[in-house]
Task: structure prediction
Amino acid sequence: MRAVAVVPNARDIRIVEHAPAHLNADDEVRVRSLEVGLCGTDEEIASFVYGSPPAGSDYLVIGHEGLGEVVETGAEVSRFKPGDLVVPSVRRPCGHPDCCPCQSGRQDFCETGDFTECGIKMRHGFLAEFYTERDIFLTPVPSELRDVGVLIEPLTVAEKALEQVWKIQERLPWCRSENASTPGEGLRAVVLGAGPVGLLGAMALLSRGFETWVYSRSPKPNPKAELAESLGARYVSSKTTPPEELAEQMGKIDLIYEAAGSEKAAFELLPVLGTNGIAVLTGIPGPKPPVELDADQIMRRLVLRNQVVLGTVNADIQDFQRAADDLSHFSRRWPEALRSLITGRHPMDSARELLLGEHDGIKNVIALA
Ligand code: BGC
Ligand code: ZN
Result:
């Protein structure tokens, strides 16, 4: 069967003939791949600065933002039947008996670093016609989400981040809203970056009641700004408005949600984080020369304002379930905006060009069926 793979030794990315997927255990599910989203991580893998093939393979099948359809289930699988839509999670546990997070199903917090990631680190991904997966790593997706379900994996970034934010900000119980469905009410968040992770994060924040601002490079008017504003967020360009001016316009900033992958932009925004605020970093910047920072000022503010800077990677299966639930909610509240995040659907043969070339748009997706 056909799959898209990177071949690091040949410094190549191409369609390979990959062994067909068969069920090997009773808890496995065979999945037909319907759509696979591409992101910055895939671009880095395609330029060989990130990722690695499974042991013994000279290539890595890429693709970690999957949406598929169940075609066959093992004897022990009761949660799924053929025809069901599913999204696979990305990370698999390290297997060390003393790695408490992995042993507890929280490989997103793996302590040994020996976890694997489908389509990224030592495990084949989902950009193949079929794949098999253990049922515990699959999340059911309602059939109404067929056209947007591929956004679930990028949305899990925000789901995990927000879970962490609530846990940490429990330290500030005094001003909390009584109404649990809008825990962000009365709070202000700025989303740094207007790519898929940023805009999905903005939806997640808005749906929890945050006053949400999207802060990104491109000056207005531009399609991402229009999209952000159609959600009910405000959009400000960092090209025309420096962080201090943004803070003057916004008022106290309770949360920074970084989704731009730019260390410079993130640390330039940090000085405007409000007292007791939290900055969540989700981007993984590529290797670059060091940037100069006003470290004493950053440290002074962190201490004198009780601030938290939090890094977050990968997501737990519960975050996938939350993302599926949230996506249903978003698709009712913002049907057009949600669909317009997917700006291109392309055949498998276009993957190489999409990953190596310049392209605009928001989320590019490979459609296999
Ligand atoms: C994926 C995560 C993964 C991270 C680091 C991201 O693009 O969405 O699942 O943990 O890359 O490899
Ligand atoms: Zn990704």
About this structure: DSSP finds eleven helices and 19 strands in the chain. The chain has a mean pLDDT of 96. The two ends are 14 Å apart (CA to CA).
